[in-house]
Amino acid sequence: MKIFIDTGEINEIREANALGLIDGVTTNPSLVAKSGKPFRALLDEILAIVDGPISAEVISTDCDGILREGRELAKIHKNIVVKVPLIPEGLKAVKIFTAEGIATNVTLCFSASQALLAAKAGATYISPFVGRLDDISTEGMTLIEDIRCIYDNYGIETQILTASARSPMHFVQAAKIGSDVITAPFGVLMQLLKHPLTDIGLQRFLDDAKKIKS
Ligand code: G3P
Description:
Order of helices and strands: EHEHHEHEHEHEHHEHEHH
Strand order of the largest sheet: 1-2-3-4-5-6-7-8
Radius of gyration: 19 Å
Bound molecules: SN-glycerol-3-phosphate
Oligomer: single chain
């Protein structure tokens, strides 16, 4: 399973990249706004750090506007993936981007039927938001299972990108189901590494090491 970091914070991207943890980056307008940086400047900084797919989201909601923005974004670098909302105008644009060889990440997916339609439009990635489904008392990971089943039934190549992941359990479940990619905030990636028995065990080894005769 590939791991992307879901953030607009350059220090987090740099640290996760140095740890060798990440294969790519996802951003969205909320994360870009939080970074306090202009969108283009932020993308340039990310592109200089990570050599992998970088999702950059359009903010137009009509097909022509999405095409205009997406083509500009795709021109910046071959690693840019144009992130498009899962709305009818978005799917029209995805079909055209696909024909033009522009990679897409179809975002704000909350149902298996939406995921099937995005795949039919040729989406490179589909981003089901598991955490936001959990927020409304619906089991988000069931959606990943359903999409995996449907895509496998028909040999669909669109990659499942588990998004809105909020915990290590989302991560482990996504891997067990066979999600192609997961994107998670820096804090969740760090939580994946932690285990109290690792810390306790290390401390004991270090204490005992002091008793070794030289
Ligand atoms: O990639 C989508 C993700 O950023 C949404 O996460 O936590 O805002 O639901 P969240």
